[in-house]
Amino acid sequence: MEVSVSMDPLFLAWSCCRRRQLQRSADICSKILSESPFDQESGGAQVSEAAWSLKTRALTEMVFVDEVEVDQEGIAEMMLDESSIAQVARPGTSLRLLGTSQGGAPTPAVRPMTQSGRPVTGFVRPSTLTGRPETMEQAIRTPRTASSARPGTSASGRLVRLGTASMLTHPDGPFINLSRINLAKYAKRPNMAKTLFEYIFLHENDVKNALELAAVATEHAQFRDWWWKVQLGKCYYRLGLLREAEKQFRSALAQQEFVDSYLYLAKVYQRLDQPITALNVFKQGLDHFPTEVTLLTGIARIHEEMNNVISATEYYREVLKQDNTHVEAIACIGSNHFYTDQPEIALRFYRRLLQMGVFNCQLYNNLGLCCFYAQQYDMTLSSFERALALASSDEEQADVWYNLGHVAVGIGDLTLAYQCFKLALAFNNNHGEAYNNLAVLELRKGRIEQAKAFLQTAAALSPHMYEPHFNFATLSEKVGDLQSSFTAAQRSEDAFPEHVDTQQILKNLRLHFATL
Amino acid sequence: MSSVSQELKDTSVASSKWLDAHYDPVANLYTFSSCIALSDLHGDGENKLVVGDLGTGVCHMKLKVYRGTGLLSESTLLDLPTGLVSFLMDLHEPRTPAIAVASGPFIYVYKNLRPYFKFTLPSLEVNPLELDVWSQAREDMIDPMTLKEMLEGLRDKAEIPLSVRSLRFLMLEPQEMESFVHLYKEQPIRRQTVITCIGTLKKNMADDDAVSCLVIGTENGDVYILDPEAFTILYKMSLPSTATLMDVTGQFDVEFRITVACRNGNIYILRRDSPKPKYCIELSSHPVGLVRMGKNVVVGCTDETLHGYTQKGKKLWTAYLPAPVTTMALMDLPTRGFQAVLVGLANCEVHMYRDKNLISTIKTPDVVTSICFGRYGREDGTLIMTTKGGGLIVKILKRTAVFDDRDSAPGPPIAQSIRLNVPKKTKLYVDQTLRERENAVAMHRAFQMDLSRLRLAAARAYVKALESSLAPMSASLTEPLKMNAVVQGLGPSFKLTLNIQNTAASRPVMNLAISFLYDESLYSMRTAFFKIPLLVPGLNYPIDTFVECLSDKGISDIIKVFVLREGKSAPLLTAHINMPVSEGLALN
Q1: B577 at the A interface (CB within 8 A)?
Q2: Can you say where the TPR repeats lie in this chain (chain A) (predicted)?
Q3: Min CA distance, B506 vs chain A (Å)?
C-alpha cells in the first residue's frame, strides 16, 4: 500500500472517497486509526474521529443501494398478509387485482403477460416482478431467481444480495462490533451518528440496531431533525410496520419538504396497496418540486402497474422532456409503441438507447424484433446475432432463440422455428411460451400426443398464459374430445376473458352439448 | 357491503312493478316448479302455498304449507316428490281441495293435510325368461355368476326390460351377489314403473271449482287419466318416450288436449279418442320448461332459446335468452286479461315474455329454481319463487303496474357504429417503406445471407444440444420422453419434483434411470441415482426427491438431472434446475 508522503493522509483518504476509490480510502483510514486509536483521549482525537467517520462512509458507499428502488415483498408479507380485507377490490384502486385494464391498453393477445399477469414492461425493476401468488403452492415453487415473479423471503431476497456485506466474513473481524457499541453515546454526536446509522443500516443490514440508534438520536435532537424521522421510517418500512413508517415520513415532510421523503411515503402506500393515495402523494410532491423526474417516474410506474398504459406513457413522455437520457422512460415508451403496432417508432427509441451507450443482449434483441416487424430485414438477423453474442445467462440465450423462432415462423421456415424453440427450451427448461409454440409445430406435423404433452407442460409452467389452454381446447375439439376441450376453453377464458376465439369455441361446444 | 345493498335498492326501484312482500334467504326450501302449488286448503277463501320439499335429495323430504310469511304445517314424505297438484275430488261441501303428491310409483292424496288415499301404479308384465332365471336361482340350480351372465344376456336382447331387482343385481360387486340373491330370491318378482309428472284435468265442467281428474305420466312412456273419486284408470295412452313435463287443458268428458314434453327431446300432443299422440314437435335440444299460453305452447330449451308453437305443432317464433333456463311458469291474471310466461334464468334473472317480446325483467338475489304465480292469501297477483340456495321470495304485482308490449326486434348491432382504433401509419413508416423500395435487392441479399448464417448457427447449436442431450425432451424415436422439474421449499431443504412423461402414441418405455449432477460442497442429496418405473404413454409421472443446501452464504447453483438408459452413458435428456437461494439459514 503506497501512501503519498507529501499529502495529509486524512485529506488523501477524503479525496479518494470523493473519487470513488473507496477501498483505498478505507485502507488509508484504517492506517490512521491503527496509529491513533480513537477511543483514547489524546490530542489526535479529532483526526481519528474524522477518519473513523470517513471509513464508515467509504464502507457504506461500497455497498450503497438506493433504498427507494429496493423493494421486494417477501413471501411472508404476501401470503400471510393479515390486512388483505377486500379480496375483490374495485377496478382501478388496487395493484394486486390483476387484469383490470382501464381501456386503451393492448389485450394479452397482442401484448404478452408477465408471470404476475401484467403486460410486459419495457424496463425490468423489482416491482414489475412481484406478482401476488394465489396459493402457497405457487408461492414456494421455483424459480425464485431474479428473473422470475416468485417472491423470496425478505430476509434473503435482493436485500441480502445487493445491499449488505455482512454475509461475507472479514478476515480480521468486522470494522465495528455492533454488539459492543454504545449507541446512546454516538446518538449524542449527530455528525458521527448519521454515518454510523448508514453503516449499520446498509453495510450491516441490522435494522433493529439501526432503529434503536435512530430512535435515540431523534430523541436527542428533540424530534426536530427530519433526517432522523426519515431514517426511522425506513427502518419501520423494512420491519413491515407500515403505518408507523407512514407516520414518520409524514412528520418529516411537515418539517421539511424533500423529494426522497415523498418517494418513501409513496412506497409505503404502494405496499399498503393504495395506489391512488400514492399517486396523490406524488402529485403533492410535484406541487413543491415541479417537473421532478423521480416523482414523475413514480407516477408513470404506478399507472403502468395498474395496466393504464396510456397515462403511463404520458408521464414517461413528461419525464423525457426533463431528462432526455432517462433509460427507463425510453424503454417503456419504446415497448409500448412496439405493442401498439408501431415498431418503426419503437425502433427509433431503442436506437436512441444504443446511442446512449446501453449495450446489452436485451436491447439488441428488441432492436432485432423491431427491425423484423418494421420490415427492415437487413438489420434483423445481425441484431439477433449480436444479442446471442452478448447473452450473459442461459435465460437470455433462451429468450433470443425464442424470438428467432418467431422470426422463423414469420418467414415460414418451420424447421428452423422448431430448432429455435427447442434450443430455447434447452437453455431455459421453464420457458412456457416455447413449449406452447413447439406444441403448435408438433401439431402441424400431426404428432398429437407430443403436442398434448407440451401444451400440458406449458400450462403448468405458466399459469398466466391463455394460449396453452386455448390450443389444448382446439386440439381436443379436433380429435373429438369435447369434454377436455370444454374444460381447457374455460381455463383459457379465466386467463383472458375477452378472447374472442375462446368464446367462439365455448359457444360451439355449448351448442354441441345442447343439441340432440 | 354498503355498495351491494345500494345496488339491490336501485334495481327494486327501477322495476317498481312489484312489491317485495317477503324474502327469506334461509327458508331451507329446495324444490322445483312441478312441486309447488297454491290452494285454498281449508275453504276459508285464503290461498296457502303447498310445497313438496326435496330436502337434501336423500332425506328431509317434506310436505310444507305456508300461510302468509310463516310455515303453517310440515309433514314428512317417504320418498322424493316428483310432482304436486291440488285438485277438487268431489262435490261435498265445504269444497276443500285435496293435494296429490306423486313420488315413486305412488300418489299420496292428502285431504285437510291428512293422508287420505294412496294410489299405486299397476305393475307391469315381467319378462318370463327373467322369472324363469330367478326361479332357478331360488332352487339353487345356478350360482350367482351364471345368474349374472344370463341376466346380462336378457338385458341386451329381450324386448321387455328387466325388473329393478335384476338391474340392481347386475350393478353389484361379485362378492355382494351371493347375499343379495339369498335375501331376495324368495320374494316374487315385480316390475314397477315410476311417475315422472302429474297434472289435472277437469272432469266435465270448465268452472274453477269443478271436479278434476289426475293425469300422470310414467317412466315407461304411458299417460294415465285417473278417476277423482275412485282412483281407477279411466283412460290410458302411450308415448314413444318418457314424459318429463306436462300441460293439460280441456275437459275429460268433452275434449281435452295433453301436451307432453318427452325425454327424447320431442313434444307430443295427445287428444281425446286417440291412444297415440296426434302431433309431434321435434326440438333441436332438450326442453327445460313447458308452458301453454292460450292456444300456443312456449318451450324453453337447454340451448338458451325459447320457442313458441301452435297447438298443432307449427313453430311461431324463437327468442334467444342471455343464460340457460332454470324453470318456467305461466303468469295468468284473468281479472286483467293478462298472460305472460315467466322464465327463470341461471344469471339470477326472471324474464317475462309475452309472445316473443321481453316485457319485464326481475333481478333476484340467487338463481331461481321454481316459480309459481297466482292467488296467495287474498292477493291475486302474487309471484312466489324459491332459489337454488333454499330461499323463498314472495312478490306482489302492483295494481298500477302496466306492461307495455314493445317490439324488441333488433336494429343494426351497436358494434357496427364503433370505429376501430387503427393506428395511423407514421411518416417514419412511409420513409422506411421508401428505403425498402429503393434498396430492395440489397436488403434481400443481406437478409438471405444472414438467414443462411443463422440456419447454420442454429443447426450447430441444435446438433450440440442433441449430441449432449441438453434439451428437456428426448429426440430419439424409440424413447420420446419429456421432463420438467419443479423445486419447492424455502430451504435449506428443497423438494425436487421431476415430471416425466412418455409422449409416444402407444409404446411404453422401461429400464430408465435418473441421476443428478451437482456441486457437492453446496448440496447434498439423499439419493442421487434411482430407477424409474415403466412409463405408460400419455401419463405424467411425478418423481420426488429431496435436496439439502449446505451453504449459508445465500448463493445458489444449478443442478443437472439426467435421464439415462440402462447400459448407456449418454443421457436421453437433461434438465437444468436453477436452485433458489436457501433462505432457511439466512434468516438467523
Answers
A1: yes
A2: 361-394, 398-431, 432-465
A3: 10
